[in-house]
Write a structure and sequence with these properties.
The chain has two helices and eight strands. The protein is of the alpha+beta class. It is globular, with a radius of gyration of 16 Å. The two termini are 15 Å apart. The relative contact order is 0.16.
């Protein structure tokens, strides 16, 4: 991971330190423009109002949206709280939540991309039973993660 911005639903923006490697001529400026534009747009869109029911029957709430670059690809991450996937107290298994990923990609991520003319190479949908800081381990937390590419204006599952 090269860098990312974090937008939380309470509308605060956290700007973590970023360790950058040397970029090709013009690459750093293009990255900075995309990153700032993406952070600004994501800040405007992240809202607790993005709670919705999904095919598994659980209610999920958008916790944060991240944009970062992985192996020279732009990744847009939608991280949802899904308390019903908790190991100890939840009743939704990964198998039960499988359809939720495509549903969230199609109904939350794709409209967002169209609205703000964003073209990430990868869209990642994360379901987590509790807030977990991105990139940090929490052995007590349950997280289900799937990735998609937007091809022919539809979300296509991507095996990584």
């Amino acid at each position: 991971m090269v860098g990312y911005c974090r937008i939380q639903t309470n509308r605060t923006v956290r700007w973590p330190s970023i360790a950058r490697t040397a970029a090709s001529e013009g690459g750093a400026l293009r990255w900075k423009q995309r990153w700032v534009r993406g952070c600004t747009l994501l800040f405007l869109m992240a809202s607790p109002a993005l709670a919705q029911d999904v095919p598994s029957g659980q209610s999920v709430t958008l916790n944060e949206v991240l944009i970062d670059e992985v192996n020279a690809e732009s990744w847009l991450r939608f991280r949802f709280l899904a308390p019903q996937i908790a190991r100890e107290t939840g009743d939704i298994t990964y198998t039960a939540a499988e359809e939720d990923f495509a549903h969230l990609c199609e109904t939350v991520a794709r409209p967002y991309l169209v609205e703000f003319d964003l073209t990430p190479q990868v869209v990642v949908i994360t379901l987590m039973d509790r807030p977990v800081p991105f990139g940090q381990a929490d052995p007590e937390a349950t997280q289900f993660i799937e990735a998609f590419r937007i091809l022919d204006e539809t979300c296509r599952w991507e095996a990584f």
